[in-house]
Amino acid sequence: MGGLKPALAAHGVSVNITDSENLLGNTTGGLKTGATMQGVTTMTMDIDTAKAFGLAGGSFHVSALQLHGRPLSQYYLGDIQTANGNEGENASRLWELWYDQQIGPKFDVKIGQQSIDNEFIGSTYTALFVNTMAGWPVVPSADLYGGGPAYPLSSLGVRGQFKPSEHVAILAGVYDDDPGAGAFTADQQALDPRGGRFSLKNGALWIAELQYSTKLLGLPGTYKLGGWYDSANFADPLYGYNHRGNYSLYGVVDQTIWQSPQRSAQTLNVFGRIMGAPSDRNLVDFGFNGGLTLTAPLPGRDNDQAGIDFGVAHVSSRAADAVIAAGASRHPGTETLIEATYQAQATPWLVLQPDIQYVINPAGGVDDPNNPARRLGNELVVGLRGIVTF
Question: How many domains is the chain built from?
Fold first, then answer.
């Protein structure tokens, strides 16, 4: 940026801008065939308070999103595991605004507006994939208010992190569970198009996670166990009355299983993430995604990655019964996703990523709204993601 970034860095300030554009098309099945273009520009500023103000151990972060274009899943697919991780309603919004303070060598506290997908339930290797559920998983996306305080939303909260050793970290936080302040209103993004709207009247989202990093036969791996509890009311999908509270337990595995003896950059990695939630108050009661990634897949392409991801979303029995009670002829079950992708570092500032996704039994196998006599057809999604870093 014309020398601006190194000048700011000397004073502890880091400024970054990235733009991700996604051209995706549905070639068969779903609601209809066709293609859309949607993207997001992300702007972030981080301040090291020790360098900037002489306050040791502190860091300040602010970020904003500018979403533009048209989502594919809502208008063309009708699936549960949305095709594009950048999907969201068009808006320019404040995303995160927080302060983190180190307290001693092993503990830090973060307070402010946070998007919890940046720290919780994350998998290192799923970050490669285009499908939304490789990032923030399907269970909280479907079951929490507005999908939870995760991209493109966020909410007020406090997070503590304790690192008793270099291999172990314990994270715990409490957040406003209603990021758009809409309670039972489905469209929290429309209610909060600029970011920063909170009610603090609905309920609290509590979440905790244990992380353990180790080496298995000399190869690095990270293992996570966690769970969340939401204290608000959640309506029974079939009977309509409220259940007090909602919860989920989860596990995450990221493990390198092979490294080339000739090229250290080339590794084969396996990942898996599993989650469950009660059937009587949720749309999705089970979610899983897992697969493989290969770094430096081709000679001379050490910054490239390739991978395959397999995802499952199971519609809860109570939600499926509600679909039948509403007059549908099919009882929804399990939606399955297979995604293959290749991420190429075309230039130091440009990444190009061709992607293909196949969705089996979209929405768990529901009636096609265009022709209720048949099931919503399996979908083949192809496209290209481009990421520019300024």
Answer: 1
118/124 Cα distance (integer angstroms): 11
Could you tell me the CATH number of the domain that includes residue 272? 2.40.160.180
Give yes or no for a contact between 199 and 185, defined as CB atoms under 8 angstroms apart. Answer: no
The alpha carbon dihedral of 86, 154, 124, 338 has a sign of: negative
> What span, in angstroms and rounded, lies between the C-alpha atoms of 351 and 388?
7
Tens of pLDDT along 151-185? Answer: 999 999 999 999 999 999 999 999 999 888 776 66
Domain that holds residue 115: 4-389
Dist CA 81 CA 118 (whole Å): 19
**Cβ(22)–Cβ(341) under 8 Å?**
no
Pairing of strands 334-347, 305-315: antiparallel
| Amino acid identity at 12 | G
**Tokens 């399907």 sit on residue:** 138
Whole-angstrom Cα distance, residue 135 to residue 85? 7
DSSP state of 202: S
DSSP 74: I
pTM over 0.90: yes
Do residues 65 and 95 touch, judged by C-beta distance below 8 A?
yes
Written as six digits, the tokens of 139 are: 């269970």
pLDDT tens profile 10-46: 889 999 999 999 999 999 999 999 999 999 999 999 9
Given a contact cutoff of 8 angstroms between Cβ atoms, the answer to whether 158 and 194 are in contact is no
φ, ψ for residue 161 (rounded to 5)?
A: -135, 125
The pair of structure tokens assigned to 122 is 């994350």
